[in-house]
Write a structure and sequence with these properties.
Order of helices and strands: EHEEEHEHHHEHEHEHEHEHEEHEHEEHE
Shape: elongated
Strand order of the largest sheet: 8-7-6-9-10-11-12
CATH topology of the largest domain: Rossmann fold
Structural class: alpha/beta
CATH class of the largest domain: Alpha Beta
Strand content: 15-25%
Helix content: 25-40%
CATH superfamily of the largest domain: NAD(P)-binding Rossmann-like Domain
Largest sheet: 7 strands, parallel
Number of helices: 13
Distance between the termini: 9 Å
Radius of gyration: 25 Å
CATH architecture of the largest domain: 3-Layer(aba) Sandwich
Number of domains: 3
Length: about 400
């Protein structure tokens, strides 16, 4: 069995080399691909071929992929959660220090100085007080979102002597185990904002989080607080943030998402989306997502999909495998089993998982699955996709 993989961006060779070329054709010009590998290319308005069985993003966010449309087609969308977490964590810490010590305004001041050494020294001594900052120990950092990045940032801030508050209503058991005991849980978003000197955002952009940090919540923050946004730009309301910056309620905004409205504001440091821009992060993301994609194409196993449930089943030698995505409604497994039984196919193993409106089923049978049986299963109302491996 061979697969055709369309790449829409430059994907790290460390990841691409994981795919054996005798089984995988990988190119940026392929037609009728089995899967798409992407980083930042915009697929929201693109025509995605009917042949596509999966889309894999070598990164964490999937805002450039029409996830809902792919779900309706029974196509999983994979990402690489945590693969770039260390890179983002380090940039967040850099942003924290830049804000605390007024590094960018001070640098801009020095670069604008003119004159000889004596004039330069006099100007520096006369004006350096304008850029006096503050130290981290004893200050409170509020971490909103305790996923892979948020946990690393929270733990690192403790090591720098800061008091750390964290809030995440969807904190997983895995992340809770990784979180150091010194991180204090906040009761709510508002509680975290009101008690922090610095707030750092590590939440996804959804309908619920768009403009989550607006005028009312900015007013809750301590006067002169710092806001760090290395998550997604629209989580913060730009107009209301500008007002808070102008009023001195917020002393600095450091983000990874430049915008025309804010990039030139004297209290804003905007970076050109550098969070995952390290060689290590690109390698890690590509390796992780390629291995995930290969396991899905070859074995039907689902891991790290943003729209499908996790589902992985070991394979017994001599069995055929059926992988099915369907609407999460009653009696789907029963109808599929009936179709297999009518073809006198014995089920050797079965796994069924659901996530929201989508369910995913892996079935191993003791005999080969004829095309007519696959066609009958595909014809069941509610089946989104089905394939034999």
């Amino acid at each position: 069995m061979s697969f055709r993989i369309l790449t829409l961006n430059a994907i790290s060779e460390r990841g691409l080399e994981r795919m054996p070329r005798e089984r995988y054709s990988v190119d940026a010009q392929l037609t009728e691909p089995d899967a798409i590998l992407v980083r930042s290319a915009d697929l929201l308005s693109a025509e995605i071929p009917a042949s596509v069985k999966a889309i894999a993003r070598a990164g964490a966010g999937t805002n450039n992929i029409p996830v809902a449309k792919m779900s309706a087609r029974g196509v999983p969308v994979f990402n690489a959660p945590g693969a770039n977490a260390n890179a983002v964590k380090e940039l967040v810490l850099a942003g924290l220090l830049v804000a605390a010590r007024n590094v960018c305004p001070a640098w801009a001041y020095v670069r604008g100085l003119e004159g000889d050494e004596a004039a330069l020294e006099a100007a520096v001594e006369a004006e350096k007080g304008r850029f006096a900052g503050w130290e981290l120990p004893g200050r409170t950092l509020g971490v909103l979102g305790l996923g892979a990045v948020g946990v690393l940032v929270a733990n690192a801030a403790l090591g720098l002597g800061m008091k750390v508050l964290g809030f995440d209503p969807q904190l997983t058991v895995q992340r809770a185990w990784q979180l150091q005991s010194g991180v204090e849980p906040a009761r709510s978003v508002d509680d975290l904002l009101a008690r922090s000197d610095v707030v750092t955002l590590h939440i996804p952009l959804t309908a619920a989080t768009r403009a989550l940090i607006g005028g009312e919540r900015l007013a809750l923050m301590r006067p002169g607080a710092v806001l760090l946004n290395f998550a997604r730009g629209p989580i913060v309301s730009e107009d209301e943030l500008r007002s808070a910056l102008d009023a001195g309620q917020i002393s600095a905004y450091v983000c990874d998402f430049p915008s025309a409205a804010l990039k030139d504001h004297p209290k804003v440091v905007a970076l050109p989306h550098l969070g995952a821009s390290t060689g290590e992060a690109e390698d890690n993301s590509a390796v992780m997502v390629v291995e995930t994609l290969m396991d899905y194409l070859e074995n039907g196993n689902v891991r790290h999909a943003v729209n499908f449930p996790d589902a992985a089943l070991g394979r017994e030698p001599g069995t055929a495998r059926l992988a099915i995505a369907n609407a999460n409604v009653p009696n789907m497994v029963g109808q599929i089993s009936t179709a297999l039984a009518a073809a006198e196919l014995n089920i050797a193993d079965l796994l069924n998982q659901s996530r929201g409106e989508v369910a995913y089923t892996i079935i191993d049978t003791d005999g080969a699955i004829p095309e007519r049986v696959l066609a009958r299963i595909r014809a069941i109302r509610g089946i989104l996709s089905a394939r034999v491996l």
